[in-house]
Each structure stands twice: as structure tokens, then as C-alpha cells.
């Protein structure tokens, strides 16, 4: 059989066209890949694995409903072990593999490291939990989004609730980890006490010096005795991970927990009262990423509660699972709106879409990419058999967010 040049060209065009169509079909069915760098081992693995739980549930629920535009979600998990260098290495590896969307890191120091390279990697980074204010101020990057409340929002809301619920607790101190987020959180909380007690409780409040501890400490006796000797009636907590459980178990043994009237917890969420059980202080009110006892919760709220119950044996669902869950929904909403996984298209979509989350409607402030959604505070108390969670307090994020100043340090 003989073929002339014209026949070969036509045949080649048909084959090329068929290949292009096949390529488009393959792309249309290809998974949407999202990277996640989280502390899945080490001292902060509780936080990282709770984030992973929420991420996996969101992925499975979205895929069961048909994916995003018919394409399934695929999550590529990497363990950063709570190490900034490992978080950077994970981000570089995922970028080299063609991933454009990154959930994480969970912790502030790791976010500080990754945010400085995220533009060069041409990725969109979304932390599910870091409240460090500088990430959306002096360290601002258009490629970074905070999928959580920040220090100002969390600490000031907690101070407002303390003034409303405990007007007779007028002498406050605290214990914070000796890291940037610890000092910043205390500064915002103490400023909030001085603002809200006169406004709400019509009384002045005495704010004492804060006790600090190194991250990874195992002995908190010095800090505990200092707090006991101060006469503080209320104590602010910004310890987290394994440190917070160690510290407050020692506080119970040494008598601090029974001496104070209330603990305002800015770092432990539901993990701290759940871990302490009946050994917790008599009143603890915590910043939480999700109000698990919300009587007005939406369908996503009910579905996440049910799925955590099916997948774990935990007595209470971890509130930080909602942070990972919401990060997946945020990226999914952006991909759907942009009809693309290209970095700039995702950024523009996140700046404009309204997202359904377990906390309710959420959006990102265009100026600095701070998420605006309800800020939740949940009260808990010890019982003979463990812990009881009370009804929470919900305040609109727009009421407590600070002014945007991307690229410029925010002054308290």
C-alpha cells in the first residue's frame, strides 16, 4: 500500500487531533491535587493529626458528591514534624511535583518559614490554624491565606467574654510559651481585658506579669508557683500540644487549678479540657475553631460531627478538625469558581468567593487574606466522669478583626 505526502499529513492531523481530545478528556477526569504539610509526628502531632482528620473527611465527602466539576480531590500529605526546615522542604517537593495548592503548616514558626518562599514556588498557601498576626501584616504575601482567626480576633474575643461572664474576676495573669505567638497573644488578651472590663463590667481590672515557658518543657513548677503566689483569680493560657497537658496536670497536682476562678484558654481548644477531664480547673473558656455544641449548626456541621464519630473513638470531636475541613472546602470553592488550578486564578477566586464551612459562611478579606467567619468561645467544666461542654459564644469576625495593613506591622 502506498501513501502520498498529502495522505500522511491528513492522517497526522487526525492523530494529533485525537491525541488533543484524549488529553483534554484525561485532564477533565484527572484528580485535583492539594498538598498538606502538617506535624503528623512529634510534640504537636495531636494538632496535625486532627487537621488531617478534617481534611480527609472533607475530601471523602466532596468526592462522594461527585468531586469538583466532576474531578476528584487528591490530598498529598507530608509530615513536617513541627520543624520549619522540614516544612520548607515539603513545600518545595510538592511544588516540584506540580502541586499549586498547599494546606499548612499548622504551627506559626513553620508558616513564617514557608511564607517567605511561597511566591517563588508559585503556590497558594493556606494555614488551617496559625494565629500569628505578622503573617497577614509585615510578612504579607498575596500567595498566603489564613484559614483561621488571628491572635487579635481570638484574644480580644476571649477577653470580651471574660468581662461579660466573670465581672468579679479582677486580677489576671497568664502562662504562655516563650515564642512570638505566645507573647503576641498575651498582649492582645491583656489589652482586651483593660478595654472590655471598664466597658462591660463597669470596673477596672488588674493585669499582672505573665509567666513564660520554653516550648517542649516538661517541668512547669516554677511558673505554677509564680502564678499561685501572684494571687491571680483568672489565668490566661497560651500553651499548646503536649506542653499544655503536662502544664495543667502539674497545676492540678500543685493546687493552682483549684485556686483560680477561671482559665481563659487561647491555645488548647477542645483538646485541653478533653485531655484533663475531671482534673481541669473549675471553669475553662476556650478559643475554639468550631463550636461542637452549636444548636443552630448547618448541614456541614452535622455531617462532620457524625463522620468523626464513625471514624474515631474520641469522647468529643476535636475542634481543630474543622480547620482542616474548612481549608479543603475553601480550595474546592476556589477551583470551582475559577475552573482552574492555576495559582493566580485560585488567588483571585479566594479573594471573592463565599465559602460554606461548619462554622457558617466564611470569606477572605481581599486586602490581606484574613478569613472572616464567626469567632467561637466554648465553656467547659469538670464532672465526676470527665468534662462537660457548655453552650458557646459566637461573635462575628467582622466585629473583632483588626484593621488591615498588609506589609506593615500592626501595632497593639
Structure write-up:
By secondary structure, the chain is α/β, with parallel strands linked by helices. The chain has 2 domains: 31-149 and 296-372, 3-Layer(aba) Sandwich (Rossmann fold), CATH 3.40.50; 152-288 and 375-400, Response regulator (Rossmann fold). Helices cover 44% and strands 19% of the residues. It is built from 14 helices and 16 strands. It has helices at 5-29, 45-64, 84-96, 108-115, 151-165, 180-201, 221-230, 241-254, 256-259, 271-276, 299-311, 321-338, 343-350, 397-400; strands spanning 32-38, 73-79, 101-103, 124-127, 144-146, 171-177, 206-213, 234-238, 262-265, 284-288, 355-357, 360-364, 371-372, 375-383, 386-389, 393-395. The strands form 3 sheets. Strands 6, 7, 8, 9, 10, 14, 15 and 16 form an 8-stranded mixed sheet that branches. It has a 5-stranded parallel sheet with strand order 2-1-3-4-5, sandwiched between helices. Helix 3 packs across helix 4. The chain starts with a helix and ends in a 12-residue tail after the last helix.
